[in-house]
């Protein structure tokens, strides 16, 4: 049983969007894009008798370069906050949640991907492809980035 089975996504909020288009890329130009995802859990106030709610701040950034000469083409960054309410089991303390929050990455990444994809389309970067899913595997330690190429 995974930690995610005891929590429900209560809400999400996109809190920051930053985009820089350094140079327009042609439709035929090969682009190398690097994506980095950072997840940071935060404790939220709660009533004494209720099960806890924890927040995860997810920041995704994407940097694109021309494959031919390495010139920077664009940089994008999105920040999203997601609140998770525990719905089952014994109340989980924050330290345990902080150590084991990685499974939520696979739930939040598609939301971030959708926002990132829309931003890329608006900037004319429709040829840049992002991964649709994260490989299931050993979770990354807290505060470490997941880097996708």
Helix/strand layout:
Blueprint lengths: L6 E15 L9 E13 L9 E14 L5 E15 L7 H6 L5 H18 L23 E3 L1
Antiparallel strand pairs: 1-4, 2-3, 2-5, 3-4
What does this structure look like?
This protein is an alpha+beta fold. Helices cover 16% and strands 40% of the residues. It has helices at residues 94-99, 105-122; strands spanning 7-21, 31-43, 53-66, 72-86, 146-148. It is elongated, with a radius of gyration of 18 Å. 20% of the residues are buried. The model is unreliable at 138-149 (pLDDT under 50).
What structural keywords apply?
alpha+beta, 149 residues, single chain, 40% strand, Bacterial Protein-export protein SecB, 5-stranded antiparallel beta sheet
How far apart the termini lie comes to 30 Å
Task: Provide the gyration radius in Å.
Answer: 18 Å
Low-pLDDT windows of residues: 138-149
Helix content: 10-25%
- Tell me, briefly, the overall form: elongated
Largest sheet: 5 strands, antiparallel
Indicate the proportion of strand residues.
Answer: 35-45%
Q: What's the CATH first level? A: Alpha Beta
CATH fold-level label? Bacterial Protein-export protein SecB
User: Total helix count?
Assistant: 2
Order of helices and strands: EEEEHHE
What's the architecture in CATH terms?
Answer: Roll
The average pLDDT value, as a whole number, equals 85
How many structural domains? 1
Strand order of the largest sheet: 1-4-3-2-5
Q: Structural class of the helices, strands and pairings? A: alpha+beta
CATH superfamily: SecB-like
By DSSP, the count of extended strands is: 5
